[in-house]
């Protein structure tokens, strides 16, 4: 991970022709060689690899534990990683996770997944921001074009690749992204930033102070905009956007025992072709109580309200209100057993005004989810731990889903961990799966509704059974790495089948798939002021129709936009006091459906602390390739072009 001060809680331990790979690596090699001479001197003002390995994470067990003890494929993006990457948006910051597959679709849309099945409407990944699920029941995924946080206030992003349904519920099939912002006490004083390139502009301000009753607060506001990108046909993608957002947070007590209240509100417009802009707005409010009870057990209560509106001309207009309540209790049972149990309830009131091309029946729908869960960790010996967990979750469409997991962790010494896991997760039906309809003309024949495609009344949950084996180690003070092999079997994948009682197509579950692969990453402190980080994922995603399927698209309808491999390499050097150089190279293999050639992109950031409270940074994006596409079909797909982004940050 890159250098510089970070404020985590630490548990301190006792195809067109492209340049050949060698040509692509040459610019990076020259840069590293040029600055290697400066890499001797004072140590990086950063956490050591040993300290980074013991950052507390919560996504694996829903309780704080050192990263080195977590029996899962988890990568942590730190606040300092984000700053030194020069990321200008949340999806761009997520590119730092080597176990995530990320493609920019156009100026406002991204396709983000872990372990395959990538799409702008990806539905097998769970995303949380400070415990709030950013999920739309329309397609069981995330509208990334309205997800924004003040990146300077992010404490860490925990990225778990692999199933997490036992703790986080349905839709945590292939992974969990848990975005955690800093407490108000850690964001005191003032901060202002401005930045821009020929494609994007941003401005943000934040102020934090103390409350009279011993608490702390912060307030912020930000505005961002992106221009339309060009496409391969020579035109514009017409997907530019502008958005404003403001929010606050207040904390009392400490993270172990205290209160938190926070909220955000946003408003924006998103360009689209051949019609008026998409209007988006939303607001949320979260309350959280953490208590340490007698005997040392911990109680966590959280409630939130989330309101979103999306008016997409000629398509649909949606107003969604979500109310969520969660309770969790973590306790020690004797000297060798730790139990976490709890439950939750969510109500989503979805109101959809149907458009001409498609709609939802019923337009208005109240959806309920209720769950109880327990996960028990038992120490079989000083070095061996067994974890078993089970969640029962009920939804409107399929009733009760059973979500178990079993994990075994072996820690032969304080710096290494071998683990294995067997888990079952589901992707519950969305409104598209059950309630969608696209009418024909005429809309009825003899009083019977006619449609081109519709949700299936019997559409069931998609199911994934996953086996994982992993190893994480720090053999040297200057070297750490993680390796995970996985095999996933998917059942009841979505297909489009002929309507058995009339014309048109309906969604059913008549396909299956599998994904096998290896994901690995590591950090090397090459010199006291130079750190290298690398990551690689190799995978094979396969899908096929069941024998009784009549899906006329055949296997092409199941094709996934997933490369067989992708990798990244990052270099972070402190050139001198207050001067930083960061280089990131990322490579993504070719996609087959739709066909898209492999590409390699190199970004470089130079940061200069002009004075104690003022920092200037220059970010060169896609430096050694004038343009490339990352997703979509030719010739309309958008192009990711070379750009220079300049940013100025003032801190009081």
UniProtKB/TrEMBL annotation:
GO cellular component entries: cell outer membrane
Main localization of the protein described in the UniProt heading: membrane
Subcellular locations according to the entry: Cell outer membrane
Domain TonB-dependent receptor plug: 67-176
Xref: InterPro entries: Beta-barrel_TonB (IPR000531), Beta-barrel_TonB_sf (IPR036942), Plug_dom (IPR012910), Plug_dom_sf (IPR037066), TonB-dep_rcpt-like (IPR039426)
Occurrences of domain TonB-dependent receptor-like beta-barrel (ranges): 201-623
Keywords: Cell outer membrane, Membrane, Receptor, Signal, TonB box, Transmembrane, Transmembrane beta strand, Transport
Pfam families given in the database record: Plug, TonB_dep_Rec_b-barrel
Keyword Cell division: no
Superkingdom, natural source: Bacteria
Transmembrane regions listed in the UniProt entry: none
Gene Ontology molecular function: any one: siderophore uptake transmembrane transporter activity
Listed GO biological process terms: siderophore transmembrane transport
Record membrane topology: Multi-pass membrane protein
UniProt similarity note: Belongs to the TonB-dependent receptor family.
Name assigned to this protein: TonB-dependent receptor
């Amino acid at each position: 991970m890159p250098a510089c001060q970070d404020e985590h809680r630490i548990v301190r331990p006792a195809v067109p022709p492209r340049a050949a790979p060698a040509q692509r690596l040459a610019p990076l090699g020259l840069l590293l060689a040029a600055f290697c001479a400066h890499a001797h001197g004072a140590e990086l003002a950063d956490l050591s690899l040993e300290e980074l390995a013991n950052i507390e994470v919560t996504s694996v067990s829903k309780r704080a534990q050192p990263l080195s003890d977590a029996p899962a494929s988890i990568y942590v993006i730190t606040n300092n990683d984000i700053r030194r990457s020069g990321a200008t948006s949340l999806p761009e910051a997520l590119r730092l996770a080597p176990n995530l597959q990320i493609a920019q679709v156009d100026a406002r849309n991204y396709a983000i997944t872990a372990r395959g099945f990538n799409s702008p409407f990806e539905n097998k990944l769970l995303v949380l921001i400070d415990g709030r699920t950013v999920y739309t029941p329309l397609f069981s995924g995330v509208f990334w074009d309205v997800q924004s946080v003040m990146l300077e206030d992010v404490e860490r992003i925990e990225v778990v690749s692999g199933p997490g349904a036992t703790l986080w519920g349905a839709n945590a099939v292939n992974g969990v992204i848990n975005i955690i912002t800093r407490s108000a006490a850690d964001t005191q004083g003032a901060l202002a930033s401005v930045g821009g390139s020929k494609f994007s502009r941003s401005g943000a301000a934040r102020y934090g102070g103390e409350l009279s009753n011993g608490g702390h607060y912060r307030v912020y506001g930000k505005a961002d905009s992106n221009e339309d990108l060009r496409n391969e046909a020579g035109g514009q993608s017409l997907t530019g956007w502008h958005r404003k957002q403001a929010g606050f947070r207040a904390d009392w007590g400490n993270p172990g025992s205290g209160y938190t209240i926070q909220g955000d509100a946003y408003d924006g417009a998103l360009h689209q072709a051949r019609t008026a802009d998409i209007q988006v707005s939303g607001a949320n409010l979260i309350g959280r109580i953490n208590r340490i009870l007698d005997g040392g057990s911990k109680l966590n209560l959280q409630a939130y309200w989330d309101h979103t509106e999306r008016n997409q001309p000629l398509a649909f207009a949606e107003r969604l209100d979500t109310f969520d309540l969660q309770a969790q209790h973590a306790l020690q049972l004797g000297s060798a057993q730790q139990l976490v149990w709890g439950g939750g309830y969510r109500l989503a009131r979805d109101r959809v005004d149907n458009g001409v091309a498609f709609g939802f029946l019923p337009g208005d729908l109240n959806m309920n989810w209720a769950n109880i869960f327990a996960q028990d960790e038992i120490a079989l010996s000083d070095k061996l731990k067994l974890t078993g967990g089970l969640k029962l979750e009920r939804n409107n469409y399929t009733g009760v889903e059973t979500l178990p997991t079993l994990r075994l962790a072996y820690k032969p010494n304080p710096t290494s961990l071998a683990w294995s896991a067997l888990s079952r997760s589901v992707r519950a039906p969305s409104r598209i799966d059950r309630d969608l309809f696209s009418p024909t003309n005429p809309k009825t024949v003899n009083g019977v509704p006619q449609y081109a495609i519709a949700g299936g009344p019997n559409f069931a949950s998609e199911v994934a059974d996953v086996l994982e084996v992993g190893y994480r180690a720090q053999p040297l003070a200057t070297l750490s790495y993680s390796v995970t092999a996985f095999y996933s079997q998917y059942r009841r994948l979505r297909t489009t089948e002929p309507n058995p009682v009339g014309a048109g197509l309906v969604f059913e579950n008549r396909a299956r798939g599998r994904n096998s692969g290896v994901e690995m990453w590591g950090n090397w402190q090459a010199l006291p002021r130079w750190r290298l980080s690398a990551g690689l994922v190799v995978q094979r995603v396969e899908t096929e129709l069941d024998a009784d399927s009549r899906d006329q698209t055949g296997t092409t309808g199941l094709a996934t936009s997933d490369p067989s491999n992708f990798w990244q390499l990052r270099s972070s050097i402190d050139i001198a006091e207050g001067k930083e150089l960061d280089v990131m190279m990322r490579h993504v293999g070719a996609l087959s459906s739709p066909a898209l050639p492999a590409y390699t992109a190199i970004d470089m950031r130079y940061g200069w602390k002009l004075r104690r409270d003022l920092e200037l940074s220059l970010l060169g994006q896609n430096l050694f390739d004038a343009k490339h596409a990352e997703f979509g079909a030719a010739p309309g797909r958008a192009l990711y072009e070379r750009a220079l982004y300049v940013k100025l940050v003032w801190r009081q």
